[in-house]
Write a structure and sequence with these properties.
Elements: H1 3-21, E1 40-45, E2 48-60, H2 62-65, E3 66-67, H3 71-80, E4 87-97, E5 102-105, H4 120-126, E6 136-138, H5 144-147, E7 151-152, E8 155-156, E9 162-164, H6 167-173, H7 176-181, H8 187-202, E10 213-216, E11 219-223, E12 232-238, E13 241-245, H9 253-256, E14 263-264, H10 270-287, E15 290-292, E16 301-307, E17 310-315
Parallel strand pairs: 5-6, 6-9, 13-15
Antiparallel strand pairs: 1-2, 2-4, 3-14, 4-5, 7-8, 10-11, 11-12, 12-13, 15-16, 16-17
Length: 322
């Protein structure tokens, strides 16, 4: 037998022996390795780098909290999207690197909204940034899932950041008088805002604005009051491209895109919130601008297309930056 033939026979025997000795089912016995958990998604907007950051998800019984609709209508809308109640709902924030400033819009929930949330800082680090690098944080409104991540154990999480929100929002949620007057089941909203904002207020790093305001080059605040008294949206523009970050102008894509008049219990003024939503939807569809929203399925980025009396949501096409 030649040397080459001997080598081939030896390899064959070893492979056959390995097959015999491998326990049946050993490959599948380990089961799934990990649960799916989106962390961050990055895209370019002109010269700006935009990173969507996941704070996690939370299950919401939306038929119980949506208003100006009925449970049956909600169930039908969900079924059309192959969904059912409760709905696993994303909580998103957005990081904008303008080249000269690192700006974050909203800060997640921290420890204020349960164990399935509070992942923003971990995902910020996974995206290649550290909390101390964030220069400015713009808050759409002061509900717990938007400000809770600002503080931990009474200290600022973002040690070098300036925090900005509409003055009306601050006047409402940071008022001890309003806290005292609030119903018992609403007091936690005020308490969450106060404990989250306190490290920045006490050190002079909270700087409110009033209505429509230019913040840093390429980022502008627009008043969109209704969901809360000082709710704001943020417009990001670079090289003719525009991204509008909606905050909580909407909550449930499967229901509110086809029927924008549907509101939610958490609205301070549901009529004003619905009017702001309809205005924003129409502008997005007409202008073809990018949209980002706190509770759209992660990464919450895409476009709107008008469809009869409602709208179709076109999520961003997955892309790897090169």
């Amino acid at each position: 037998m030649s040397a080459l033939a001997l080598v081939r026979k030896t390899v064959f025997v070893l492979v056959a022996l390995a097959a015999v000795l491998t326990p049946v089912g050993s490959v599948v016995a380990a089961g799934p390795a990990v649960k799916s958990q989106p962390g961050y998604y990055r895209m370019m907007l002109g010269d700006f780098e935009v990173t969507a950051l996941s704070d996690g998800t939370v299950d919401l019984q939306i038929a119980q909290i949506l208003t100006n609709t009925t449970p049956a209508r909600v169930a039908r809308a969900l079924a059309r999207q192959y969904m059912q109640d409760p709905v696993e709902t994303s909580v998103n924030a957005y990081l904008i690197n303008t080249g000269s400033k690192l700006v974050m819009v909203d800060a997640g929930s921290g420890s204020l909204f349960g164990p399935t949330l509070g992942k923003l800082v971990a995902n910020l680090r996974a995206a290649g940034y550290q909390p101390e690098q964030v220069d400015e944080i713009y808050i759409t409104h002061m509900h717990a899932d938007h400000v809770g991540g600002l503080a931990a154990d009474g200290k600022a999480v973002f040690q070098n950041a300036i925090v900005r929100a509409d003055q009306r929002e601050a006047d409402y949620w940071l008022s001890p008088k309003n806290l005292e007057a609030a119903p018992a089941d609403a007091k936690s909203f005020f308490e969450g805002a106060m404990v989250s904002m306190r490290p920045y207020v006490d050190t002079g790093r909270f700087r409110p604005f009033d209505g429509d305001t230019d913040l840093v080059p390429g980022v502008r605040a627009l008043a969109a009051r209704g969901h809360t008294p000082g709710h704001a949206i943020f417009v990001v523009e670079s090289r003719g491209q525009r991204l509008v970050l909606w905050g909580d102008l909407m909550h449930v894509a499967a229901v509110q895109f086809p029927e924008p008049s549907v509101t939610i219990q958490f609205d301070t003024d549901s009529k004003a919130a619905a009017a702001q939503r309809k205005k924003a939807f129409a502008a997005a569809a007409k202008q073809g601008q990018w949209i980002g929203a706190s509770h759209l399925p992660f990464p919450g980025l895409g476009h709107l297309r008008h469809d009869g009396s409602g709208y179709d949501w076109i999520p961003v096409n997955y892309s790897v930056l090169r």
